[in-house]
Amino acid sequence: MERVEPVPAGIIEDAVVVGCAAFREDANTNPPARRPAEILERLPDRAPVNGGIAGGPRPPLPNRLEWFCFPDGDVAPVLRRRRPPDSVHWFTLHDERTRPLRGCVLTSWRRCASNADGSKALWVPTALCVLSRVGVGPALELWLRQAAVVLREDATCDVSLRRRLVQLADEAPKPARGILSIDVTGPLGRVISVREHRCGTRGNVGGEGACPPPRGGGGSIRLAVLLLGVDGLNAALAAVLLERPLVLHSCECDSLTRVAEALVSLIAPLEVAGAYVPVLPKPLLDLLDAPQAYVLGAKSAWLPRDENRKMALAKGVVCVDLDSQRIDTAYPALPPAMRAEVEAATRRVRALAHEALGEIVDEDAASRDMALVAAEARLQATVARHIVALLDPPRRPGEPKGSALDPRTRGVAAVARCAPEARPFARQLVDTQHVQQLFELRPNALVKARDALFEDADELECCDVVLRCHGPRADAYTYRVPPPLTGGDATDDESTDEETADDGFAWRPRRLFGSSMTPPPTRVYRYGVLADLLGATVGDLRCALEPPIEPPVLVDTPRAPAVPPPPGAAGTRDAAPTKPLREFTPPKAPRENGKGGKGRKTR
């Protein structure tokens, strides 16, 4: 029975194309009119047959998904001589009951028409968005980079993006950290390795290591260090720890989520308890005035300013400019000892990141990259070690364990036992919501973090630091998803390119997923087949890829109604006649000497 159960599939949850509807405007209008963003296409509403079970309807899309694909709230065509560059940005949506839903958006430009003198052309953006709950951020970005080459072509494309996306959504098995990695084929035919990375965001902190890296959600600690600077990182880190409103702003949205994910991963084992919207759409800017803790990201041009061009935000909001590494408002400070060690670790990461930007490829490139990864791990370990020291300082002889106390008493005891110069910061820290949730829901998390961390971080080798901090990275098995089945990579319907239609529209969005709503055939992977290919046992794959099975609930089932016998069955009138059974006669008792008559009975 184990060999007929399907392997869980779905690297991505969904894929949509967002843009504007067809319009009749010519290229001589300057500036071009802005148009509302809308969802143009989506993967088939029903998943294909997978594992022998008919696919059910896909879950509904998040509300106002098009605003997160185009944070301006609408689509803005531009009039330029050359094609604008493609861009990729991330956004994160949270739900209290499920894992975070992350979206990776590729914005590509297509030529509409030229002006009267032919010097400039009207370019219209279109966004391809993939949604995923698995920490596979780097792989999805590489996949979309290949799709950018496909979308850049003006002629009819020979690659069916829909078939490739259906592979990611309904055919490829989900990767499992340390167990299974997947090799998928990109739109250009290049193989991409998909590995799960633990993400340091709400509901997903932990794993094999003490400090999970932010790569799964598209974050980058090295980029955060370069864009924030030493002072900016200290200010942003203190604001997140003390649950002060934090606003990250930049001219573009490409780096907002990467920096926000890095900041959230640096506060492990704590989790963000307030609003967390790394890319805040322009129509939702009223959230800046919300009287609560939040981590928001927005474009610099959207933020309110006074007559002196200074930020006009509410009191207590910490605002950091990623473009100029400038802190626009007042900000809290870390404890002296923690600030000194964090600054030293930050400078180390910053120096190695500048060396990596040189793109010098030689025999020492791999060692430099490993040193940079180890420096990021040391920075995470430094912050986590000081958080543990503030919330659970060493106990004196005879004092009870912190996990045995109620959250309020535990916070008072932590403030009383910490260093005198750190008490003002610790007093504010224990009153935050994420610390109280840590004390109530995960009372032993600090003890586990202390056991996983280390004091002599500088004396360990780079590989040991990464292993202790991030956990093992090697996967036991790797499986390659084959390319689409028969039919090649051609589109399903050759008439899907509607741009050639002479209907009077200056621009019409091209269908990327094809006009056919029937999904292409997909392979069904079963545990037995996958176990044979990977050289593993069925039990190991089941434990790695499936959650534990809940015990069955006993329910009284109604008795089935009586079914009349078919005609001709035994006992019916038209049954065939049968011979009567012969009556059974018991044998006679034996007699002595074989003669009849009365005789002596034998024993």
UniProtKB/TrEMBL annotation:
GO terms for biological process: regulation of Rab protein signal transduction. Coiled coil: none annotated. Residues 490-502 have a biased composition (Acidic residues). One of its GO terms (cellular component) is cytoplasmic vesicle. It comes from the Eukaryota. Residues 478-514, 552-603 are annotated as: Disordered. Residues 16-452 form the UDENN domain. PANTHER family: DENN DOMAIN-CONTAINING PROTEIN 3, DENN DOMAIN-CONTAINING PROTEIN 4. This is UDENN domain-containing protein. It comes from Pelagomonas calceolata. The lineage of its organism: Eukaryota, Sar, Stramenopiles, Ochrophyta, Pelagophyceae.
